[in-house]
Amino acid sequence: MNKPNPPAKSADPPAKTSRFRELGEGSSLSISVITIAALLLTWYGVTRLGWIKPLFLPPPQAVIQQFWEYATGIANDKPLIDHFLMSLFRVGAAFAAAVLTAVPVGIAMGMSRVARGIFDPPIEFYRPLPPLAYLPLIIIWFGIDELPKVLLIYLACFAPLAMAARSGIRSATSEQIHAAYSMGANYPQVVRYVILPAALPEILVGMRIAIGFGWTTLVAAEMVAANVGLGQMVLNASNFLRTDIVIMGIIVIGVVAYVFDLMMRWLERRLVPWRGRV
Hints:
Blueprint: H1 13-48, H2 60-72, H3 80-111, H4 113-126, H5 131-142, H6 146-169, H7 174-182, H8 187-216, H9 218-221, H10 230-239, H11 243-271
């Protein structure tokens, strides 16, 4: 007597993958919250017990006090909003200029050996250099106004954006390009509707990296005769050994940079929702 075959188990890999991804994200968020809380408690405990002198590590309440004084404008300095807006202007202007110039350069490098031969040597030469290495030249050439500050941040953002755009061009397969040509598309249409969408995920990743480099270079950029800005606030406080203001400024810069990164992640999910899907 033949035994009936057991019913086949229904498999839904995409659903399982989605559940695993959601579970992983939730677990990661809870672990991050616990880690931050543990660091804050350790910071409070170490300073409370007097293991580290306030000159080297002030207690959290002192940093919070400085944040309140700067936020309300009662500190012996410009209000925190003035420092923030000026730094935001410098980073935002440099980042926007880098996006408008580095992305076309990167696309040209990925599609033309002539463009690659022109732009690749200077980009690869200055890309590993720290901003402080060529900061004196920028001051000599462009003075001490706003231009050298924005230019320094611009150069920090340009290289990763150009390299990301160049790498993203390779995501467009020859089959996709030939299929577009066979359907009657011309060269600009192929670039717009085939190559750019394929390169967009890599470009957005490059934008995330570039905005991080921009905020990293902010302190160096505001060393150039600045009288307002988050980096200038940190540098000025370090000259007077005001560690509480230094740590407050570092935290503000880090939080702002993290918010920008979250905005770039949101933009990536909106523009390339297929990225990371299986």
